[in-house]
Amino acid sequence: MITAVFQGPAAAGDVLGALATAAAGAAAAGAELLVCPEMVTTGYHIGARAHELAEPADGPTARRIAGIAAGTGVAIAYGYPERDHDRVYNSVQLVAPHGRLANYRKTHLFGDLDREWFTPGALAVVQADLAGLRIGLLICYDVEFPELVRAHALAGTELLLVPTALMRPYEVVADVVVPARAYESQLFAVYANRCDTERELTYCGRSCVVSPTGEVLARAGAGERLLIAEVDPAALRASRTENTHLTDRRPELYRTITEGSKA
Amino acid sequence: MITAVFQGPAAAGDVLGALATAAAGAAAAGAELLVCPEMVTTGYHIGARAHELAEPADGPTARRIAGIAAGTGVAIAYGYPERDHDRVYNSVQLVAPHGRLANYRKTHLFGDLDREWFTPGALAVVQADLAGLRIGLLICYDVEFPELVRAHALAGTELLLVPTALMRPYEVVADVVVPARAYESQLFAVYANRCDTERELTYCGRSCVVSPTGEVLARAGAGERLLIAEVDPAALRASRTENTHLTDRRPELYRTITEGSKA
Question: What is the ipTM of this complex?
């Protein structure tokens, strides 16, 4: 499956217009999936406006993006602030040309930037099937927890989508942590970052698509970019035959890492 | 604490002589610790000779290395085939100038290369205190399992030593997985690889010392090398204040990753 990553838009303004242009570009490249950044519909570092702009998962913005997916034939994963009654989540939704497939609420909130405005999600593994691949959804800081990616792999995730808003000086996450996740848990990983600046934050771009061998199939620089890469199920099967991490685990040795809980 | 990594010896022959030279070099650089590769005393890819050459943890080779540690004032972590009655383990021992501190048996055996000759270790987290730092020991393939490094971090490991025998084409482990471990579990990681060739294997070198921010403090190329880096407890404390992965975990979401066991 050809997969596209929209690292953008760099400028504030007509986000859905930019997203429609990116989807058209993805379709022209033969892509069946377009992955966009965290909170792409509204901006991420927007303070109380996250609450003003939050919409239900089937709200007007979702319907417009579903229209873009239907019009271009490209499934779209995008971040947005989700309202559910009096709660607001930092969410990612996957919308196929034929309708909404899955909605995930960020479970690992990052610092005050997230915690001041969002309720943490309660469900770790959210998946959907697309073009014969089992897709999983995470958001930004979530992917820094290898346990969560492992839970995805054990639940069958083959292609992990990670919309993000990674700022300087955390390039290590895009350059090192994401490729390590793909290799150690034997899945394709798509990391779709914001670019440019918001208030005092400078996003570092560096969106990527990584194969289960840890090979970086496509990598963006700092600026706006539409990345294209092929996610090949045969390459996944070949890698899992060679790299047997998922079956070489010894869960009885790790019990301490799932003891206790932070309610 | 100044830490040295001996990526070698490149040539077969007087391994303990080479190790003594490396320890003297480490001492001259002010190091209190020297980390050597997996199975440094005998070679790694040696087939049945691993059983012939295996010694108890307090055997003659251990006593000679303890003598080098005492003579140079440098603690030495080194890999060797360990005999315990009728079993042979792929082990690493940490020997301080004042005596043996800890012995770890590889828990995650790598393919037929390991499984044909070694019994897997039963204890995941082996630690010792040295120069005010809590040291942890793992071996090669072990470090590719983030659960195991997490278990170390939660048990208090601050400096993780990983003697290894990493061969081509698995450079991704040295370049990407080890730095990811240091960052995600907030500890210093020392990865001490073999160099040169054994039979059909070519080791890729690339030994490294990585800080908890993911910064590579020192990195070897392919050939024999004595690396020197400073492991600073104050930098660890500063990084853990900034990067709160260990306290931001949500263990209740990962329960599936420690269910079941492969006996």
Answer: 0.96
* Predicted confidence band of residue A10 (pLDDT cuts 50, 70, 90): confident
Model's pTM, two decimal places? 0.97
CB-CB neighbors (< 8 A) of B245 in chain A: 144-145
**Is the CATH number 2.60.120.430 carried by domain A2-259?**
no
User: What do you get for the CA distance between the two ends of chain B, in Å?
Assistant: 39
User: Could you tell me which chain A residue has the CA closest to the CA of B174?
Assistant: A180
Catalytic residues of A: 38, 106, 140
Alpha helices in chain B (DSSP H): 15-28, 49-53, 60-72, 111-115, 146-154, 171-172, 178-184, 233-242, 245-248
What is the distance of C-alpha A82 from the center of its chain? 15
In terms of Cα–Cα distance, which of B141, B219, B252 is closest to A123? B252
**A216/B contact by beta carbon, under 8 A:** no
Indicate the DSSP class of residue B11.
S
Q: Which residues, 6 or more positions from B116, have their beta carbon under 8 angstroms from its beta carbon?
A: none
Across the A:B interface, residue pairs with CB atoms under 8 Å apart total 151
Residue B4 distance to chain A (closest CA, Å): 24
Tell whether A105 is within 8 A of chain B (Cβ): no
Q: What is the pLDDT, as a whole number, of residue A248?
A: 98
Type of residue at B98: H
What pLDDT, on the 0 to 100 scale, is given for residue B261? 60
d(CA B139, CA B3): 18
Give the number of other CB atoms < 10 A from CB of residue B87.
Answer: 11
Contact list in A for residue B147 (CB cut-off 8 A) is: 146-147, 150, 249, 251, 253-254, 257
B249/A147 touch (CB, cutoff 8 Å), yes or no = yes
Q: Who contacts A261 (Cβ-Cβ below 8 Å, separation ≥6)?
A: B250, B251, B252
3-class SS string, chain A: CEEEEEECCCCCCCHHHHHHHHHHHHHHCCCCEEECCCCCCCCCCCCCHHHHHCECCCCHHHHHHHHHHHHHCCEEEEEEEEEECCEEEEEEEEEECCEEEEEEECCCCCHHHHHCCCCCCCCCCCEEEECCEEEEECCHHHHHCHHHHHHHHHCCCCEEEEECCCECCCHHHHHHHHHHHHHHHCCEEEEECCCCEECCEEECCCCEEECCCCCEEEECCCCCEEEEEECCHHHHHHHHHHCCHHHHCCHHHCHHHHCCCCC
The mean pLDDT values, 10 residues at a time, for chain B of 263 residues are 95 90 98 98 96 98 98 98 98 97 98 96 98 97 98 98 97 98 98 95 97 98 97 98 97 93 51
- Domain ranges within chain B, ordered by starting residue: 2-259
Å between B252 CA and nearest CA of chain A: 5
Chain A CB within 8 Å of residue B238 CB: no
Has residue A263 got a pLDDT over 60?
no
Q: Is A145 on the interface with B (CB under 8 A)?
A: yes
